[in-house]
Specification:
The structure holds two protein chains of two kinds.
Chain A: E1 4-5, E2 11-14, E3 19-25, E4 32-38, E5 45-50, E6 54-58, E7 61-66, E8 71-76, E9 85-94, E10 97-100, E11 104-109
Parallel strand pairs in A: 2-11
Antiparallel strand pairs in A: 1-3, 3-8, 4-5, 4-9, 6-7, 7-8, 9-10, 9-11
Chain B: E1 4-7, E2 10-13, E3 19-25, E4 31-37, E5 44-50, E6 53-56, E7 64-67, E8 73-78, E9 87-94, E10 102-104, E11 108-112
Parallel strand pairs in B: 2-11
Antiparallel strand pairs in B: 1-3, 3-8, 4-5, 4-9, 5-6, 7-8, 9-10, 9-11
The chains are: A mainly beta, B mainly beta.
């Protein structure tokens, strides 16, 4: 079983819709969770971090964490074509280490 | 602005010819990481430094070495690049304390001919 799993997509949504991206992880003791956005040919850019169960909102982005289910998600409201990218879920599994999922490709059509 | 800088952005080398990639940071973070990312794959951690303490991942090939001469700079040396080493190489920095968020540089795209 992979440590961090994401659906590779692509997830296609129309402009203005809510995009929902999901991630599951295998290490029950993981404490820190991150979402990165990566445009094609570019490096990952941090969007959100979440450490406690529940929701965390930042602008159009909401991260949701459920440690009991080992599940973390990212909601993007009012999706824009500029949100089209690959979204990487990352989980801190050990001291100073992150494990990344392979990412979900999001396509927002005008 | 505080940032992570990687040079060069694109590097072309020949099979077996040593190559060095560099990373510098103005964030004054005590941890620096090197990742390898191939197309449609997750970033794969090669090694990291906490200050001068070097931590190698178990599956990182011996062909990959690293140096961190001071807090600001870190280098990735590929001693004998093979065709399979063509990838994006990402440098990231972070703080050991706190939640250990990692911040990435722009990456170096390596092509091996």
């Amino acid at each position: 079983q992979k440590e961090v799993e994401q659906n590779s997509g692509p997830l296609s949504v129309p402009e203005g819709a809510i995009a929902s991206l999901n991630c599951t992880y295998s290490d029950r003791v993981s404490q820190s969770f991150f979402w990165y956005r990566q445009y094609s040919g570019k490096s990952p850019e941090l969007i959100m971090s979440i450490y406690s169960n529940g929701d965390k909102e930042d602008g159009r982005f909401t991260a949701q964490l459920n440690k009991a289910s080992q599940y973390v998600s990212l909601l993007i409201r009012d999706s824009q074509p500029s949100d089209s990218a690959t979204y990487l879920c990352a989980v801190r599994t050990g001291f100073q280490k992150l494990v990344f999922g392979t990412g979900t490709r999001l396509l927002v059509s005008p | 602005d505080a940032m992570v800088i990687q040079n060069p952005r694109y590097q072309v080398t020949q099979f077996g010819k040593p190559v060095t990639l560099s990373c510098s940071q103005t964030l004054n973070h005590n941890v620096m990481y090197w990742y390898q990312q191939k197309s449609s794959q997750a970033p794969k951690l090669l090694f990291h430094y906490y200050d001068k303490d070097f931590n190698n991942e178990a599956d990182t090939p011996d062909n990959f070495q690293s140096r961190r001469p001071n807090t600001s700079f870190c280098f990735l040396d590929i001693r004998s690049p093979g065709l399979g080493d063509a990838a994006m190489y990402l440098c990231a920095t972070g703080e050991r304390e706190g939640q250990e968020t990692q911040y990435f540089g722009p990456g170096t795209r390596l092509l091996v001919l």
